[in-house]
Amino acid sequence: MKYKIMKDYVEHQVKSKFERVVKKVFKIICICILVFLFLLLFGYGFMYLWNWLMPDIFGLKTITYWQAVGILVLAKILFGGFSGRKSGKGKPSRKKCGPGRKMKLKSDFSKWKHYDSFWQEEGEQAYNDFVARKTQENNDTN
């Protein structure tokens, strides 16, 4: 009896592992086929657009599929690279906006509530005085 239970258990484990491996292989094959079809379609789309627009606009010759793929690969090498942003290059990381930083930002904006009245009362005249002073300094140094 124990032998039969153990045999059934082992058969079940082997069968389920085999099924998982087959499913994984099937998924990988399907993904490879889809990627291949996407690249094929993308190359033909690029070739179609090039042959439709470039000869009329710039007087260039029409291109074949492999020339279109070559242009895409060359553009990827020249402009895109192959790094995948793993080396720390690219966008700088943003600072986390924690509670202390939020309070600092809010306190900075609280000073602006008097800005309009300041500008109406003193700001424009103060700015004009500043410009006159800078102009005078430039004239004195020349």
TrEMBL record:
Annotated keywords: Membrane, Transmembrane, Transmembrane helix
Region of interest called Disordered, as start-end residue ranges on this chain: 82-103
Transmembrane region(s): 25-51, 63-84
Domain of life assignment: Bacteria
Biased composition (Basic residues): 86-103
Protein name per UniProt: Uncharacterized protein
Source organism per UniProt: Euzebyella marina
